[in-house]
Structure formats: structure tokens, C-alpha cells
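Researcher: Last one for today. Full complex below.
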Amino acid sequence: MKVNPSIIRDGIRAAWPICLGYFPIGLAFGVIAQKAGLGPWEIGLMSLLVFAGSSQFIAVSMLGSGAGFLSIVLATFAVNLRHLLMSSALALHLRGVERTWLSLFAYGVTDESFAVNLTRFRSGNWDRRRALVVNHVSNGVWVVSTIIGGFGGSFIPRGAFGIDYALIAMLLCLLVFQLRDRVHLMVAVISGIAAVAVALLLPGNAYVMIASIFAATVGLVLRKRHPATREEGK
Amino acid sequence: MTPGVEHHVLGLFVAMGAVTYIPRWLPLFYLSRKQLPQWLETWLDLIPAAILSALVTPALVIGGDPRHLDLLRPELIVAVPTFLFALKTRSLGGTVVLGMALFWLTGRIFG
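Model: Here's the assembly. Have a good evening.
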């Protein structure tokens, strides 16, 4: 593929808000991972191989609480399964593209890169190369920021700067992004209540899967009564 | 501390990477020409809101070891302005920074 500077520039222009969001979270992740006993290069390797913020936070907290290999992998799978829908939506805009390229692009599909790329694709003023730049620039910033956090972590005392709250705040904001209409809101409320109930009844992290599947299934019924409004090109 | 990457951690990361990559890759690879059944598309559309709420709500209202309901946790109190800020600004970075700052302040005042 020939590298055209304008493609890189457009990609970076679209990606910078993502990078701005990733950098403090990556730093915070590096710090928390370092507290859980991972070295900076282990942190970087994890970010490179997994590249999924929420699941990395969860994996590290599970590692810290002594969870087993299988439960961490299953939790990762459960948390990241949502990308299935995002890739499905993106696939509509990438018809006829060669499969090796799609395989490279798939690696960088995150909540944020999906949201940015899909919005741009819908506006019509976007192509697959610029989308790929968005994915990989975001990935680069994520990997580097987590490594920096891993190095800097040893100088930051436990609980400093409210870093323990970074994950919760990020999840809250990502949740806000999902509340696009009444049914999303109702599903979120049902899922939250169900998760609390199941978490109080069962040990482990099964409550995430149980509550999510339950709430989305209830939402399917609710959606019949409140059909989705056509997507507005936000 | 050893500089080398421990084998069990490497294996874990590879497995995590694989189960993360497959759902990202499968629809792009196979679905570029197909359409999902409508009900499945609707169901999958609701999954992100459900998962994120299932992840964050217990973290706000459940205290640890043994788990119990606790509606006066600083996590929940700080979540209110953080959530409103996210609604208003839709800024991921800003929300994270604000949430951290408020949580840190709460810790200094009540801690």
C-alpha cells in the first residue's frame, strides 16, 4: 500500500480525540497493572496483544485477586464480545475489500475507533485507509501510554490522584455513549439492577454475562413496542 | 524482579488477545456480504449498554468481602456528578479526569 501523507494526516485528525481519551486511561491502566505486579514490558505486551481497555482493567484486577486463567479469558471474551456488533456494522462499509486487509483492520476495532470511523463512513467522506490510520494511531498511543504508566507507577502512591476511579469514570462515560434512546436506557437500568442482584447472590464475575444477556433479551421485547428511530448522522 | 516476561502471563495475554480478536475479525471477514437476522442485530445493539451497566453498577453500590449492598460508598457519590458531566460533555478524557479528581477530593475530605 502506498503511503500518502494526506491519508495519514486525515487519519490523525480524526483520531486525536480518541488519543486524548486513551492517554490518561492508558497511564492509569499502567499504574494499576504495575500495582498488580506486572512489569512495564509485560504491560506493553498485554496492550499490544489485547488492545481493549475495559477488559485489560478487569483482567488486571482479576489477576490481583488471584483469579484463574480460564475465568480471566472468559471474562475478556464476554466483555469484548460487543465488538461483534461493531465489526458487523463496519463490514457494511467495507464491502469487497480484500480479506487480509480486513484482518489487519479488525485488530484495531474498539468502542471509540468504531464510533469515529462509522460516523465518518456514514458522512461519505471517508475511506478504508484513513480508517486504518485511526485504528493504528489509537493503538500506538494506547500501548505507549500504558508502558509509561507502568514505569511511572512505582513513583505514585496507592490511591493518589484518584487513579482507582479511572475505570469507573471511563465505564460511566462509555455507558452514556450507549444511551441513544429509551430502550437503551431501560436495558441499562435493568442490567444494572440485575447485575447487583446476581453479584450479591453468586461469587465471581458471572453476573456481568448473566445480567447483560437477561437485560438485552428483555430489551428485545421492549424494542417491539419502541422501535429504534432511524440513526441520525451525528 | 526479573526483567523477562513470565510464561504464564504471556500465555494469558495471547489467549486474551485471541478471544478479543476473533469477535472483531469474524464479522468483518465473513459478513462483508451478508446481513444478520433482524432480531440478532437488535439484540446485539442492546448488548453494549447492558454490559457497561452490568460492569459499573455493582462497582458503585456493592462493598467488598463479603459482598454487601452499600449506598453510601464514595464511588456512588462521585458517580453522580461524573455521570452528569459525561451526559453534558460526552468527553471520555474529561470525564475520566473529573471522576479521578472528585474521587481524590472525596478521599481527602472523608478519608
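Chain A touches chain B through 100 residues (CB under 8 Å). Chain A has a mean pLDDT of 85.
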